[in-house]
Amino acid sequence: MSRWIKALRAAPIANTGSVARDHLANERTFLAWTRTGLGFVALGVALERFNTMEALPAPLPQFEQEQTKQSAIVLVESGSSCVIYGTLRYFSNLRMLQKGLFQPNVAGVTLVMLTSIAFAAGGTAVVAFGHSVKQIEAP
Fold first, then answer.
1. What is the largest CA-CA distance in the chain?
2. Which of 40, 62, 66 is nearest to 53 (CA)?
3. Cβ distance 56 to 62 under 8 Å?
């Protein structure tokens, strides 16, 4: 067990200049990616759970089961991708900072931009052309 603990502990680094500040910023960025990813996962799970509730009042719209399931899957996969990407980026930055280098995150920014555009286009399409919403009949 102590071998695992030793493997997970990082070696101390001399705090000269902005080394500590850079590593702490890297950790905060990792935590932000993780928080965002877990938020997406929670939203996907909540969307799926909300759709399975049968005792909804009559005025609330209910989306078709397949559309809700697909949306929930996309949210959970997006959240998982955020957590994975944030973890990979954290360790990549850690290695670069230890070498005294920094690599700008062009690929990550581009990926987030394209994903945001896709979500916006998909949301617009659902709102504008979503004919699959039906009203629940009152018993």
1. 71
2. 62
3. yes
**Quick one: pLDDT at residue 34?**
96
Decide: 63 and 137 in contact? Cβ < 8 Å: no
Q: How far apart are CA 72 and CA 23, in angstroms?
A: 35
> How far, in Å, CA of 30 to CA of 74, rounded?
22
Instruction: Give Cα separations from 80 to 46, 50, 70, 71, 89 (angstroms).
Output: 15, 21, 15, 14, 14
Q: Does residue 76 contact residue 100 with C-beta atoms inside 8 Å?
A: no
Low-confidence ranges of the chain (pLDDT < 50): 59-60, 133, 135-136, 138
Backbone angles phi, psi at 117, to 5 degrees: -65, -40
Q: In this predicted structure, what is the pLDDT of residue 127?
A: 78
